[in-house]
Amino acid sequence: MAFFGFKDIEKLSEVDMAVYRYIVDHDEQVPYMRVRDLATGAHVSNSSVMRFIHKIGYSSFPEFKVSFKSENQDLMESKSDILTMFTRDAFPQNIEKTIKLVAHLMLDADNIVFIGMGASGAIGEYAARQASSLGFNCFAVKDPYYPLIQQLSNASNNVLITLSVSGKTTELVEMLNNFVNSADTVLTSITGNIESPIARMGRYALSYSIEETRIHKYYDLTSQVPAVYLVDGLLKELHSQDLARQLH
Description:
Blueprint: H1 14-25, H2 35-42, H3 46-55, H4 61-78, H5 95-107, E1 111-115, H6 119-133, E2 138-141, H7 148-151, E3 158-164, H8 170-177, E4 185-191, H9 197-201, E5 204-207, E6 214-215, E7 219-220, H10 225-247
Parallel strand pairs: 1-2, 1-3, 3-4, 4-5
Antiparallel strand pairs: 6-7
Helix pairs in contact: 1-2, 1-3, 2-3, 5-10, 6-10
């Protein structure tokens, strides 16, 4: 029996759910309550509380309280810094300056292209959509074999922003090699590795530090929160610079 692991929620009535929600919201007090205390708090009858206790698999209220207290303590002890994924120390000291410089490049670009694969590609799509909403000619490329060089062959003043946690993705490096010596295209990146080939290929690199996490050798579970944070900061700065330019 496990209260927090109870799976048959759909079998609970509205009265049952009132009891359930009250217990969840008062997890520290419940082990010290009597049946009538819980009933009063949930605005139900004593018998409704007992029907709920039996329905979730306990034979008595004392049995439920002992089990619930133990389960709740296990949950509390297993808690880590779930929401503290990174701090300001995860970014270089000059990150704000670099964001302003990249935003300035984007401000006057004829084409802005976000490039990435996998989760980075999804963030690139998000960034491109937001930049387009701000009125900029922007799109995302998730396929490293996309004929981007042909598409931009007659275009000038292009900014390519590559997203890559490792900064070493071979397919992306090969794609970017087509633009390294281009006078019409500026390469920049958002990466977790400032020493990586992708970071070194560009004029600017918005970098961050975070521990890479992989499972089953190939599946990357590294947090992309810092990358999204930088993307949002970049878009905010781009919008700010655009407004400032319009005022002048």
